[in-house]
Amino acid sequence: MAEPLHFYQASFPQRPAYDAALGRALLRAVATGRAPESLRLHRPGDFVAFSGLDRASPGFAAAVAAARSAGFEAVLRLTGGRAAAAHGGALAFSWCVPSADPRRNIRARFACAAAAIAGALQSLGVDARVGAVPGEYCPGAFSVNAGGRIKLAGLAQRLSRGAAYLGGVIVVTGGSRIRRVLSPVYESLALPWNPESAGAAEDEAPGLTCMAVAQALRAALQRRRRLIAAEFSPALLREAAAAEAALQLP
Fold first, then answer.
1. Considering the entire predicted model, what is its pTM?
2. DSSP 3-state assignment of 236?
């Protein structure tokens, strides 16, 4: 039987860079054996997460300015990929898995997480499927979409010596806010993108809430693993606070 999965729900929506730093701190804790396999599911603040590739773009400064003009903080993302946005109508997740060879199960982790998210959304009346849709932002084969038309969730990984991190965002409400902020961001970065490919789960199931999706996802996970409610240690919170400034883009 699989080991229990430590489950965190603490949210810090007013400090997006701190939230990002918590993901890094949790990955290091799992990689070094200071924490067991862990999953965090929380409500994020308004932010656009930029990757190293974005940072190398000639239009990066303009993209950061566009994000902030729309009322979104700009942070450096832990994983690769391209710019992605979140806000208070979304759920963010971080899954940290100890592994002596984290490259070995990259696709299996993607498939497991995507299936759990799609299954949770399906149980709430969304025609959720796994796969990229044409023109989506931060494209990925394991995106979760509605009806093969609208991206609802993106997943990305980071590998570290001793552990793997899989994270992403599920947009539950406010799909128009994602379109409004990413349109000038992607234009500044000179990246192809079809705004009509971005939306929210509530577009398919009116009245859907973040709480309902969180409960459905937790139920889907509990069918696979035993979850143990956990709280971040003071040491881990201090480690995240020390790294916060470095992840908040100028």
1. 0.96
2. helix
β-bridge partners, 229: 7
Cβ–Cβ under 8 Å, residues 96 and 232: no
Instruction: Taking the CA atoms of 12, 18, 20 and 21 in sequence, report the sign of the dihedral they define.
Output: negative
User: How many whole angstroms separate alpha carbon 75 and alpha carbon 105?
Assistant: 28
Q: What is the pLDDT of residue 3?
A: 82
In whole angstroms, what is the distance from residue 18 CA to residue 240 CA?
A: 6
Place of tokens 């379109």: 179
**How many angstroms separate the Cα of 182 from the Cα of each of 155, 175, 194, 250?**
17, 11, 10, 18
Residue with tokens 């799609």: 118
The pLDDT, as a whole number, for residue 242 is 97
Q: Hey, what are 165's tokens?
A: 């991190």
Q: Which pLDDT score is estimated for 181?
A: 98
Give average pLDDT by consecutive 10-residue segment, the chain, 250 residues: 87 96 96 96 98 96 98 95 97 97 96 96 98 97 98 97 97 98 98 97 97 96 93 97 94
Beta carbons of 82 and 151 less than 8 angstroms apart: no
As given in the structure block, the two tokens for residue 64 are 């950061």
Look at residue 96 and give its three-state secondary structure.
Answer: strand
Place of tokens 């990246």: 191
Q: How far is CA 228 from CA 3, 11, 35, 40, 103, in A?
A: 10, 17, 13, 11, 26
Contacts of 191 (CB under 8 A, 6+ apart): 82, 83
